[in-house]
Specification:
Layout: E1 19-25, E2 31-39, E3 46-48, E4 56-62, H1 68-87, E5 92-97, H2 101-110, E6 117-120, H3 125-129, E7 133-135, E8 143-145, E9 148-153, E10 156-162, H4 172-178
Parallel strand pairs: 4-5, 5-6
Antiparallel strand pairs: 1-2, 2-3, 4-9, 7-8, 9-10
């Protein structure tokens, strides 16, 4: 994976700052490669991607698949509330973890997350590009993603909630309130 664009992070009112490849699996088992080549700047951004080609996208990220808070609270909240979130105008709800595609796929299946787009950021390239890495080396986990949720409306980040510890602003319930 090659980061083609690096502009120093992501923020509300800006574009998603990436030029990386994320991976997912189609329900039939084939590999879905999501090229996220993004023109970044203030205001509108142009996306050439499978992920952000729809009008409104909610992307939430977790430090790791099958980890306690992620498996017990974060992902299940979105599984339960995906229809409520979509009823408020979100076209795609995507979950991203810094794990390989096979682990993320197995986690999605185990959590009955078939209505979510499960994405693997295996080398943390996307997470690094948006400036939201977490150093998990003290726990034997390496580089991970901070727990966050972003709403991308027509190519512009309209909401970015980054949790500073406990599951707070990036939960399904917090996103529903914000929508």
């Amino acid at each position: 994976m090659v980061v083609r664009v690096w502009m120093g992070g992501v923020g509300v009112g800006g574009g998603v700052v990436v030029g990386v490849v994320l991976f997912g699996l189609w329900s039939g088992g084939g590999l879905l490669v999501c090229e996220c080549c993004v023109c970044v700047g203030r205001g509108r951004c142009v996306y050439e991607s499978v992920i952000f080609d729809v009008k409104n996208v909610l992307l939430f990220a977790v430090p790791g698949a099958f980890t306690p808070t992620c498996s017990v609270a974060h992902l299940p909240g979105f599984v339960v509330h995906v229809d409520d979130i979509k009823a408020k105008g979100v076209d795609t709800v995507a979950c991203m973890a810094v794990n390989d595609v096979f682990v993320v796929d197995a986690w999605g299946k185990a959590a009955n997350a078939e209505h979510l787009l499960m994405l693997a950021d295996g080398n943390a390239d996307f997470t690094t590009a948006v400036g939201l890495t977490l150093d998990g080396t003290g726990f034997g986990m390496g580089t991970r993603s901070q727990r966050f949720a972003m709403i991308v409306d027509d190519g512009v980040v309209s909401l970015l909630n980054v949790d500073q510890g406990a599951l707070e602003g990036s939960s399904a319930e917090a996103i529903l309130t914000a929508l």
